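ok, trying the design again with the full structure, not the truncated one.
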């Protein structure tokens, strides 16, 4: 986060003199306590300063990057997931390709007759199936998909960082976000590399403070 000059000055005063009351900080800057209130609130919320009743403000000792890391470690999958695009396992490769274009996604999830997760289709899965001479309208996707139980999944309450680690470890672009149903997994979301990128950009642009 970008700190204003005044906020930098406040941090320095608290570092040198803390614990120190709001009034004393204001005196040192020749400002009123009321003028300083928003800056003190921002610095406390962002984690640079802490305040104890009847003691005053003190410096937490955390650097900007430590505070960013702390925040990043709290992000949940739920806050960043996208809507899942799902096809049934007996649709044709041709129709799956059309769905991928129409929905503008890079990964489709495949469900069985019980509407539970059965497989995953990536762009390359569909490309691979297309370079043969087969009639794509007569090949069902369950023939070419990556299937359960080899699907890497995540849940809404998982940490975003753990989901990102799975994307890296498995060298894949997306994870289905699932909920355990009676005898299978219900697909309730899609977590992609783009979602992770969005989280990083938001964090860097301070939209999460
Ligand atoms: P692409 O193949 O278009 O580069 P991916 O890297 O996501 O896209 O997919 C690589 C392979 O991994 C594909 O065969 C795909 O079916 C499979 N795959 C993709 N996502 C998952 C997942 N969440 N779990 C298991 N396998 C996956």
């Amino acid at each position: 986060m970008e700190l204003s000059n005044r906020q930098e000055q406040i941090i320095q005063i608290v570092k040198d003199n803390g614990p120190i009351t709001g009034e004393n900080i204001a005196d040192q800057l020749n400002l009123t306590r009321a003028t300083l209130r928003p800056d003190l609130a921002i610095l406390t919320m962002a984690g640079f300063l802490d305040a104890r009743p009847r003691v005053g403000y003190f410096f937490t000792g955390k650097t900007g990057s430590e505070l960013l890391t702390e925040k990043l470690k709290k992000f949940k999958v739920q806050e960043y997931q996208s809507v899942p695009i799902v096809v049934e396992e007996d649709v044709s490769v041709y129709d799956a390709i059309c769905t991928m274009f129409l929905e503008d996604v890079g990964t489709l999830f495949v469900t069985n007759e019980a509407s539970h997760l059965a497989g995953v289709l990536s762009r390359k899965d569909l490309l691979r199936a297309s370079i043969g001479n087969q009639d794509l309208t007569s090949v069902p996707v369950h023939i070419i998909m990556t299937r359960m139980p080899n699907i890497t999944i995540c849940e809404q309450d998982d940490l975003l960082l753990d989901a990102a680690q799975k994307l890296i470890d498995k060298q894949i672009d997306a994870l289905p976000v699932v909920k355990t149903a009676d005898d299978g997994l219900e697909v309730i979301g899609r977590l992609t590399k783009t979602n992770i990128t969005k989280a990083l950009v938001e964090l860097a642009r301070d939209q999460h403070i």
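Keeping the full-length input from now on. Residues 107, 120, 122-125, 146, 150-152, 171-175 surround adenosine-5'-diphosphate (CB under 6 Å).
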